């Protein structure tokens, strides 16, 4: 059994989508130990220690190919390399397929529907690729994975394509309640001496970070909060100049850490007074679940996908859902969590299973 996949999300510092793809691959190898996996990209592929010896890397980043947008390379050049490896099944980690032989079974992972719901938050090339190819490729898939019920419902609404399995993104068991000693050691490492509000996510328009920044600074300037910092974790993203300028202007109150390792991030969540994530749209919302499992209350958007991520909190005051455009609602909830003691409770980390996917692959 030879399984190929596009490896664009597999970076040295993987995003949420990268972590999701890694989990799917690990689950396939656990359940189908004789499977041979082939990773294709026109960029450097980053693999965990667990996967590095089990996956054949096919990296094509010479001067010409490296400069091509990933999905353009996938559509026009990747097919000839995949054909040489005699692949039986191809997994699209982003919803797009290369040119494949008719006999190859096609599996697509759908993480979100940004092009339909929030197209203005996408780069022009990214949006154009979706416009040209996404519908055709999704409809040609033999098996569809959606990362949430919300994504699955929207996929059917826009494309009349049913998901074959809904697989929520898993969260590492490292996200859990932590001792004060563990948290304090981490805070010393990053020289964090104040209480803090935490934001985690790439610095891009869809995350609604400008909204967070402006309202946080308003609270500071109105002296409604004192000795509280806003800590931002996340890599630079598309169209982030306004965000960077705002952070630089208010560096006394805002600390942007950039990328934080998977070792430190759970402790950073656990030490926060509140986690804020008023995103305009998400396919699921892994950070919401990470924060809750770490025992930190959450302010996030009142949308189906983020409520699905937050449903592990049950009927508690650990999470507040707001209109991501309502500044007063956001600020009132920030003050609620800063000014009141919230009892941290241990929340069970859901086990993520994918039996339908495994059974489908085993058929070939």
Secondary structure elements and their pairing?
Elements: E1 2-6, H1 16-31, E2 36-41, E3 55-59, H2 63-66, H3 70-76, H4 78-84, E4 89-92, E5 105-110, H5 114-117, H6 124-140, E6 143-146, H7 149-159, E7 165-166, H8 180-189, E8 195-200, H9 209-221, E9 228-233, H10 241-249, E10 254-258, H11 265-271, E11 274-277, H12 286-293, E12 298-301, H13 304-310, E13 319-322, H14 327-339, H15 355-362
Parallel strand pairs: 1-2, 1-4, 2-3, 4-5, 5-6, 6-7, 8-9, 8-11, 9-10, 11-12, 12-13
Helix pairs in contact: 8-11, 9-10
InterPro entries: Glyco_trans_1 (IPR001296)
Protein name: Glycosyltransferase family 4 protein
Keywords: Transferase
How far apart are the first and last residues' alpha carbons, in Å? 7 Å
Query: In terms of structural class, how would the helical and strand content be classed?
Result: alpha/beta
Mean pLDDT across residues: 94
Low-confidence runs of at least 5 consecutive residues: none
What gyration radius follows from the Cα positions, in whole Å?
21 Å
CATH topology of the largest domain: Rossmann fold
**Fraction in helix:** 25-40%
Overall outline? globular
Q: Major sheet: size, sense and barrel closure?
A: 7 strands, parallel
CATH class of the largest domain: Alpha Beta
CATH superfamily of the largest domain: Glycogen Phosphorylase B
